[in-house]
């Protein structure tokens, strides 16, 4: 009987211990996002591009001021000397190229002229060939009137205009200062995920064929909207593009759960996306990061999390390392959004308050 009581007491203690252990449940230590973003040494230079913005005026809510002084692009014309400063800043920060927007002369003629003027200003001020440049087709479903039920092929006039939009920029693609990957000029397509077509591969095959007839073998990069899974737009990208990039996950942060673990959340998404695009599309992945973001400039009542600047740029440094972790081992391409989007505080460009801090970070993070 005594032996039974001892065994019963021992069993009861074990049972209570097990229940107590179960009641604690999972802890933060068990989270897939509970890890540190390590510093990745640069043993070989990365190829770094930055999106370049043009704008007509300054929002009064912009508190930062450029070292170059406040400038604007009325009709695409830049204040004298500013583009030269921008090129010099870009080179100093280890940027290899700027990416400029170009819009359809058929669907958006005024902005096409403005975009062309900005690109020409860059070329005219880049006489020593210090930097490269690439072009991004600013695709808008609104300008073409496309939808899932109104694909591009449905209107033969619009379809031909789409191809002509690219034909018109062939002289730029042949410029000695144009950015190339494996000898192929890069063409970015913004909002490629909504290039509605019944057969996207046929559209891209025709585009490549027509450019090829003009002596251009293009390296095409398609954009996918932020925080979307890689399989969502498979019909838009598979067999179509050479590389994919997402809108910057660190711009317009609107989810507090993601914000608290932003570098890790981005890292996990990019790791999966990179593998998926490679295995299913045969496409490279290009990480795209942002130095900062301020919702209050365009939306003063916003309660979304801001991505502020700091004296050390600590969060941006983490994102640089996430980008290095997920860059293609073949092309080593990295994008930064942006060089000069002051309207949302996304700029690398030096300001009176933080100086050249963000250019210095880019240089140290991506160049030997």
SSE blueprint:
Elements: H1 2-24, E1 47-51, H2 82-92, E2 97-102, H3 109-124, E3 132-138, H4 141-144, H5 156-167, H6 170-173, E4 180-181, E5 184-190, H7 200-213, E6 219-224, H8 234-237, E7 243-246, H9 256-260, H10 262-281, E8 284-285, E9 288-289, H11 314-326, E10 333-336, H12 357-366
Parallel strand pairs: 1-2, 1-10, 2-3, 3-5, 5-6, 6-7, 7-8, 9-10
Antiparallel strand pairs: 4-5
Helix pairs in contact: 10-11, 11-12
List keywords for this structure.
single chain, alpha/beta, TIM Barrel
Short description:
It comes from Chitinophaga hostae. With 368 residues, the chain is an alpha/beta fold.
Provide a descriptive summary of the structure in words.
Helix 3 links the parallel strand 2 and strand 3. This protein has 12 helices and 10 strands. The N terminus is likely disordered. Strands 1, 2, 3, 4, 5, 6, 7, 8, 9 and 10 form a 10-stranded mixed β-sheet that branches. The chain has 368 residues and is α/β, with parallel strands linked by helices. Helix 10 runs parallel beside helix 11. The N and C termini lie far apart (77 Å). It has a single domain, classed as TIM Barrel (Alpha-Beta Barrel). It is 37% helix and 12% strand. The radius of gyration is 25 Å and the shape is globular.
- Count of beta strands: 10
**Shape verdict:** globular
**Average pLDDT value?**
92
* CATH-level-2 architecture: Alpha-Beta Barrel
Largest sheet: 10 strands, mixed
Keywords: Signal
Pfam families: Glyco_tran_WbsX (PF14307)
Protein name: Glycoside hydrolase family 99-like domain-containing protein
Signal peptide: 1-20
